[in-house]
Amino acid sequence: MSYIPILRARDIVSVLLKIGFRVIRQKGSHIRLKHIFDATKNVSIPAHNKDVPPRILKSILNQAKIPLKEFVKLLGR
Asked: What global pTM score does this model have?
């Protein structure tokens, strides 16, 4: 199994914004993003005041259709 980083929601959102996602709404503590060219890529990110667990990050990457290696590369860590 590969390394899955533990991140805050704002770090995940910043990477997704770099690759073409836009915030469409925020209700409560969840941020909804949609890709500007591919309408099938919709992502919901929990923006609580704690770190996003690795299993949730993996789910977010599956929703965004981004491989983990590419995400970590975009993250710059």
From this structure: 0.89
